[in-house]
Amino acid sequence: MVRPERRRSAMDALELLRTEHEKVRALLRQFEELRAIEDEDERKAELVDEICYELTLHTMLEEEIFYPALRAAQLDADMMDEADVEHAGARELISQLEVMYPGDDHFDATVVVLGEEIAHHIDKEEGEMFAAARAAGIDLAALALLLTARREQLEEDLSSPASIETFEPHGGSRRSPRPPN
After folding, report:
1. What percent of the chain has pLDDT over 90?
2. SS3 assignment for the chain
3. In whole angstroms, what is the distance from residue 83 CA to residue 133 CA?
4. Cβ neighbours of residue 94 closer than 8 Å, sequence gap 6 or more
5. Which of 158, 53, 62, 41 is nearest to 107 (CA)?
6. CA 159 to CA 157: how far, in whole Å?
7. What is the pTM of this model?
8. 11 versus 110: which is more confidently predicted?
9. pLDDT tens digits for range 119-142
10. Which tens digit of pLDDT belongs to each residue from 11-58?
11. Cβ neighbours of residue 147 closer than 8 Å, sequence gap 6 or more
């Protein structure tokens, strides 16, 4: 049986990225639908975690693989620089959301602003950047394979629990436990 990730690699890079964009858009729409509903804090928190996770993976893929390929093809440097700055803005909002919970001041507003910034970024990417990538003759099928392989690696890395054996507490030396009071 062919795994869905393997079938996805048959897409070109732009189709793959567009699919990821739509997933994030759908998650943001779900959040928007929950905003006005009371007693949905747990679901809102789960959605925001998923939004942040997907955006983090997506931006890593673009920054590690997609954008360098576009820069190597000498696409408009200003367009690429703007995309990098937009990613930095998204990372900042994600870092704020990682320590917030529904009900906190500005939680919903932070998610809304993140969504607006991401929508703007996606529109520019799917418009100008994707058109320029196609016109540059980049091997988009090969790029999709790289993106898919890296995503699988990142998902595995992020889902693997850290082993306690991999950490050396207190620089390798343990302190004596405190006596109970």
Report:
1. 75
2. CCCHHHHHCCCCHHHHHHHHHHHHHHHHHHHHHHCCCCCCHHHHHHHHHHHHHHHHHHHHHHHHHHHHHHHHCCCCHHHHHHHHHHHHHHHHHHHHHCCCCCCCCCHHHHHHHHHHHHHHHHHHHHHHHHHHHHHHCCCHHHHHHHHHHHHHHHHHHHHCCCCHHHCCHHHHCCCCCCCCC
3. 14
4. 52, 55, 56, 114
5. 41
6. 6
7. 0.80
8. 110
9. 999 999 999 999 999 999 999 999
10. 899 999 999 999 999 999 999 999 878 888 999 999 999 999 999 999
11. 13, 16, 17, 61, 65, 66
Answer positive or negative: Cα dihedral of 154, 159, 165, 169: positive
Joined together, the tokens standing for residue 175 give 């302190």
Residue identified by tokens 């100008």 is: 128
Q: Which residue has the tokens 């200003």?
A: 78
Q: Residue 140 class from Cβ within 10 Å (0-12 exposed, 13-18 middle, 19+ buried)?
A: buried
Q: How far apart are CA 66 and CA 31, in angstroms?
A: 28
One-letter amino acid at 78 equals D
User: For tokens 């992020």, what's the residue?
Assistant: 158
